[in-house]
Amino acid sequence: MTDQTKTDTPPDRLSVHPKSEHFDVEVLKRGVGIRFKGKQRTDIEEYSISEGWVRVQAGKTVDRHGNPLTLKLSGPVEAWFEDLGEDAPVAKAS
What we know:
mainly beta, four-stranded antiparallel β-sheet, 1 helix, about 5% helix, about 45% strand, disordered N terminus
């Protein structure tokens, strides 16, 4: 792991899809916790802290290529690394 990847706060934007430009396997291996609108969520496909949105899968619906359809939800987003424990620094919009 590089020093850049081993920071205390997760990146501003992250995706779980390998084809995305915001996909980072090293960050995902550490485990990223997401709190959206005050509730911890585990179904987030992609997020952006600075823009204040998350993408979640829309049920079992898929597009014609077999990829899940997602919904973009707006609101305050907070992220932290789960491997740092309960007192981990939280990245949130200023």
